[in-house]
């Protein structure tokens, strides 16, 4: 391994949880590196009360209460640990802020010591890697990560990762090194020293290294073999077209579109990664916040000081010259910084230029951006356009976001760094939220809440900020905040404050009746075709009012997909995990269930060589996607249905999808709860139709990911014991080929999907 000529202390901790001061450090390990060589290695278990180690932590760390019996307390070894940290040293750690915070909770304050985060460093120089978790990086880069699960293994892997990052940085030419060193000179001391050392090293005259090219990844898909030409509906008529489960259906619709067509999809970025490579077949119009504003980027890069996350983001702007968010390997808090300091708004020149290009069509756009344009005072959707809206069953949810107003405090906080007025405003927003919510995690706002002196003064301050010069990026959040704080905007809207588990806060306002709003914005102004699940038109009242004129296209004939669906009788999820079949995804009802599965099965899975990834215990979504994609069989991914709807996996990755429980909306959800009250019979008229449509989307997502012969198992006994279960079974059968419904097998009824 090669290291820069610096004194480094690579450290890691294992803890009983994630909250400094509340949870405890139970293991500490470090490596001392000087003059490019490892001089010392140290590891120490630290005793705490036995009941302070939760079961999932015992599984994750493989540290049991008995392992800590007789071990010293933190105070007993503090002097030994502190002596290893010399004055000229830099702390190096994977997600180092967490370890530093946990050690501070034990009384060891390292706030004045320079720090380098290898996760952020890896995201800077490994743009092609899909996850920056230490476990995934260790696998992909073949790092020494032994012993597994323990602090010493993590320290060794972190040191090896740091070395790999240094090797890539050494590939840069002198000009690149000089620019990065200049940026680092305005950042935290650890990065300043690292990049100055890089600039001082001899550099060969060479081309830019290959690793700087190409951040975006595409799944391998073949050419679209057919085109679907959807007829233009009559004026003032909403036209329905049933979606096929076959993954090439939407690409075929896109291929068949003409210049007078706009196609709206739920997630454009995800769709583009699935589409075959093509040139000039359609114009893509992303949301403004997906695009980089050059003006705000220049202002950002001119800052006199950078935080650690701002610094890595500034370096990425230089190395990758992005035009959109997808052109950068963003990680950690860089996402909030993008939204708060770099993104375009609707008035940015870059966005207006892209919007002007839509005159050539056909246009590919997101639900969100289509609705943003439709409600814009300077609406730019040409009259007479044929709007084809994919994923119509999701339109209520995406319209809720697009037509809603949102002030997310972390975005304001990111934008406020280095800005005194915005910082003061953000502080006042948080204070008002805390006083108004009264300790509740969810608080619906009333006219009384918005007429307090604090609310009136806050609204006035925000209006003053907007009247002056304010960075483009937070303008949307501030504008939305003024709308939310206006009591006149309470009518026909749901407005609430939400406090999240991680302590972040948001103020939201959304329409109460989406169908009426969509009629005004879309159906009465354009010719609209909604792509919807089969036999679902009676379930779409949340987006199409009963008094709307409608028309129905005959089903588009599409090839069958080679997948099946079963309703196993008496199957238990634990038994299915114990006898895995290939690569499977389990959709379970709650995070508590996921924790139970992790605690009961993680160690056994490792013993038998099965990859077990669990939401909340195996990193974020990008890490789970990356690790599951490359894992050999058997492999199991345990997540909630809501996460699976957004999963991006290569084709032929999954052999089996197991749905433990019917994925109804949670009755306490802020929006669902209020909207359901509009129906005389909330369950059959609102909750059940949403369930049907969600099951269709889950099965369609599986068809996108599944191997030949893949199967869906639905374990919920309510399919047999409840009256609505029989109706739901009939609906699922309506998705199937009438020519071959299959035969019951030993595990229950089996049907063939088309």
- Count the beta strands: 23
- Report how far apart the termini are: 54 Å
User: Which strand order do you get reading across the main beta sheet?
Assistant: 8-9-7-10-15-6-16
Helix content: 40-55%
Number of helices: 30
Shape: globular
Structural class: alpha/beta
Main sheet characteristics: 7 strands, parallel
Mean pLDDT: 90
Total number of domains: 3
| Low-confidence spans | 737-754
Proportion of strand residues: 15-25%
What is Rg? 27 Å
What is the topology?
Layout: E1 8-15, E2 25-34, E3 37-45, H1 55-61, H2 74-84, E4 90-93, H3 96-105, E5 115-117, H4 118-125, H5 134-141, H6 151-169, H7 174-184, H8 189-200, E6 238-242, H9 249-255, E7 261-265, H10 268-274, E8 283-285, H11 294-301, H12 308-320, H13 334-342, H14 349-356, E9 363-366, H15 367-374, E10 386-389, H16 395-402, E11 405-408, H17 409-416, H18 420-437, E12 442-444, H19 447-450, H20 453-467, H21 472-484, E13 493-499, E14 505-511, H22 514-523, E15 527-532, E16 550-552, E17 563-568, H23 573-578, E18 583-587, H24 591-608, E19 611-614, H25 621-630, E20 635-639, H26 641-644, E21 654-659, H27 670-676, H28 682-705, E22 706-714, H29 718-721, H30 723-734, E23 748-752
Parallel strand pairs: 1-4, 4-5, 6-15, 6-16, 7-9, 7-10, 8-9, 10-15, 17-22, 18-20, 18-21, 19-20, 21-22
Antiparallel strand pairs: 1-2, 2-3, 11-14, 12-13, 13-14, 17-23
Helix pairs in contact: 1-24, 4-6, 5-6, 7-8, 7-12, 13-17, 15-16, 17-18, 18-20, 20-21
């Amino acid at each position: 391994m090669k290291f820069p000529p610096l004194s480094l202390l690579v450290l890691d901790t294992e803890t009983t949880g994630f909250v400094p001061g509340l949870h405890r450090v139970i293991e500490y390990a470090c490596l001392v590196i000087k003059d490019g060589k490892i001089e010392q290695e140290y590891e120490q278990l630290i005793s705490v009360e036995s009941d302070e180690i939760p079961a999932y932590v015992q599984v994750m760390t493989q540290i049991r209460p008995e392992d800590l019996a007789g071990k010293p307390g933190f105070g007993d070894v503090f002097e030994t640990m502190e002596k290893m940290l010399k004055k000229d040293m830099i702390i190096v750690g994977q997600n180092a802020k967490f370890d530093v915070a946990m050690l501070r909770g034990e009384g060891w304050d390292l706030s004045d010591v320079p720090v380098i985060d290898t996760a952020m460093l890896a995201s800077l120089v490994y743009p092609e890697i899909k996850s920056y978790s230490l476990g995934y990086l260790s696998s992909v880069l073949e790092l020494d990560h032994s012993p597994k699960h323990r602090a010493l293994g993590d320290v060794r892997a972190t040191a090896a990762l740091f070395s790999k990052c240094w090797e890539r940085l050494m590939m840069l030419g002198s000009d690149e090194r000089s620019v990065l060193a200049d940026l680092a000179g305005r950042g935290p001391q650890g990065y300043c020293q690292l990049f100055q050392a890089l600039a001082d090293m001899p550099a060969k005259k060479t081309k830019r290294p290959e690793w700087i090219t190409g951040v975006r990844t595409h799944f391998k898909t073949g050419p679209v073999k057919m085109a679907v030409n959807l007829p233009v509906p009559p004026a003032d008529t909403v036209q329905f077209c049933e979606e096929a489960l076959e993954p090439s259906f939407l690409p075929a619709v896109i291929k068949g579109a003409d210049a007078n067509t706009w196609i709206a999809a739920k997630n454009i970025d995800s769709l583009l990664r699935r589409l075959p490579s093509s040139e000039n077949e359609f114009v893509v119009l992303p949301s403004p916040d997906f695009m980089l504003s050059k003006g705000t980027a220049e202002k950002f890069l001119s800052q006199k000081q950078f935080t650690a996350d701002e610094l890595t983001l500034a370096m990425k702007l230089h190395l990758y010259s992005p035009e959109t968010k997808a052109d950068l390997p963003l990680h950690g808090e860089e996402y909030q910084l993008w939204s708060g300091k770099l993104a375009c708004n609707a008035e940015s020149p870059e966005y207006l230029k892209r919007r002007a290009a839509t005159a050539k069509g056909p246009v590919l756009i997101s639900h969100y951006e289509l609705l943003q344009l439709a409600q814009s005072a300077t609406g730019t959707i040409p009259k007479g356009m044929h709007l084809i809206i994919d994923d119509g069953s999701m339109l209520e949810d995406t319209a809720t976001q697009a037509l809603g107003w949102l002030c997310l405090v972390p975005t304001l906080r990111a934008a406020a760094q280095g800005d005194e007025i915005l910082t003061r405003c953000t502080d006042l927003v948080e204070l008002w939220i805390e006083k108004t919510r009264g300790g509740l995690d969810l608080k619906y706002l009333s006219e009384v809440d918005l007429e307090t002196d604090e609310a009136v003064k806050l609204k006035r301050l925000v209006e003053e900020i907007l009247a002056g010069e304010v960075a483009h990026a937070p303008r949307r959040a501030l504008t939305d905040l003024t709308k939310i704080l206006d009591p006149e905007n309470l009518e026909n809207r749901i407005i609430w404050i939400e406090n999240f588990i991680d302590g972040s806060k948001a103020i939201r306002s959304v329409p109460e009746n989406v169908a009426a709003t969509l009629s005004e914005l879309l159906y009465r102004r354009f010719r609209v075709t909604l792509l919807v699940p089969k036999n679902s038109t009676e379930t779409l009242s949340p987006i199409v009012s009963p008094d709307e004129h409608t028309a129905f296209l005959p089903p588009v004939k599409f090839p069958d997909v080679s997948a099946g669906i079963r309703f196993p009788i008496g199957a238990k999820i634990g038994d299915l995990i114990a006898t895995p079949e290939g690569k499977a995804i389990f959709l379970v009802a709650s995070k508590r269930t996921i924790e139970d599965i992790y605690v009961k099965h993680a160690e056994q899975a490792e013993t038998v060589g099965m990859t077990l990834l669990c939401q909340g215990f195996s990193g974020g979504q990008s890490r789970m996607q990356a690790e599951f994609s490359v894992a050999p069989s058997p492999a199991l991914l345990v997540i909630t249905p809501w996460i699976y709807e957004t999963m991006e996996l290569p084709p032929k990755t999954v052999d089996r999808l197991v749905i433990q429980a019917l994925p109804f909306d949670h009755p306490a959800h802020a929006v669902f709860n209020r909207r359901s009250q509009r129906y005389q019979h909330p369950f059959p008229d609102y909750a059940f139709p949403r369930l049907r449509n969600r099951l269709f989307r889950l099965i369609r997502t599986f068809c996108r990911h599944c191997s030949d012969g893949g199967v869906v198992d639905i374990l919920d006994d309510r399919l047999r014991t409840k009256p609505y279960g029989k109706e739901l079974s009939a609906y699922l059968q309506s998705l199937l080929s009438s020519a071959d419904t299959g035969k019951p097998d030993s595990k229950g009824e089996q049907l063939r999907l088309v």
